[in-house]
Write a structure and sequence with these properties.
about 270 residues; alpha+beta; five-stranded antiparallel sheet; 13 strands; about 20% helix; about 20% strand; globular
């Protein structure tokens, strides 16, 4: 599992194009040229989870033997920052020792818990965490001629990021590159992007793991994901007679803050 905060350092837009002849060339205007689409200008406000929810989900997956009902906020913050291999044999005793050390450093136990609660009550603006399959934010697109579907869900709102992966249509199980494909950005018809995060030329998009130097065959089962951007059009290509799938992601905005001391004017 990968949890990533806002950033543009691993979206895989500047990697070399493929040399395989089975793929259409990015220069093919009829394939890699976006047409105006209302979906690209839809403004959404997706609710963001609290950091506590994100960390508890991670702890459940990495420490299946821990009863999370007995964890206080300090325990949650502490466990969220260690890997499974680093965890001591007796985790609860170790957590109690860490808590006592923190209380001695900060003055008292209440201050430790208050600071921990404040941190966990903050909204989490993240990219890369696999979604709840039943979340209303998850969108699916079955892929013709296969057992798989393409899955899209929101990432960082501030970073204007989305995530995509592939799942088995029947079981909903995430799969790592279950078939041969390429994913490309599609340039806007005007040649100018609508935001600095959108490339004005066609680029192949690689998985987040590939961008961190991890080979596809070495990615943990079902962990692969692709980081996409608000308002960007993409094209999924598969070899053979399969029709390409072009889609445009919505653009989202932060909820408006009401200020009674100002008059808001919108020029459209």
């Amino acid at each position: 599992m990968s949890i990533r905060r806002t950033g543009k350092d691993a979206i895989g837009l500047h990697t070399p194009p493929p040399s395989s002849p089975i793929w259409p060339s990015p220069a093919d205007a009829h394939l890699l040229s976006a047409t105006p689409d209302q979906s690209s200008s839809v403004l959404l406000t997706c609710p963001r989870p609290l950091l506590r929810e994100v960390y508890l989900k991670s702890i459940r997956e990495r420490f299946p033997n821990i009863d999370i009902t007995y964890l206080n906020d300090f325990d949650i913050l502490t466990l969220a920052g260690i890997s499974y291999d680093d965890a001591p044999d007796n985790i609860q005793e170790w957590l109690d020792c860490e808590f006592r050390n923190a209380a001695q450093f900060m003055g008292n136990e209440k201050r430790v818990l208050d600071v921990s609660q404040l941190a966990l009550d903050a909204e989490a603006d993240i990219t890369g965490l696999k979604p709840d399959p039943h979340s209303p934010d998850v969108k699916l697109c079955p892929l013709d001629g296969s057992e798989y579907s393409m899955r899209i869900w929101p990432g960082s709102l501030e970073g204007k990021e989305w995530c995509m992966d592939f799942i088995h249509s029947a079981t909903q199980e995430p799969m790592n590159s279950p078939f041969q494909f390429e994913l490309w950005t599609v340039p806007p018809p005007t040649g100018y992007s609508s935001g600095p995060w959108q490339p004005a030329e066609a680029h192949r998009v690689y998985s987040l793991e590939n961008c961190f130097g991890i080979k596809t065959e070495d990615v943990a089962h079902g962990a692969e994901k692709f980081v996409l951007n608000d308002g960007q059009t993409y094209l999924l290509l598969r070899p053979g007679k399969f029709q390409g799938i072009q889609f445009t992601l919505p653009s989202r905005t932060f909820p408006e803050t009401v200020n009674n001391n100002v008059r808001v004017v919108n020029f459209q």
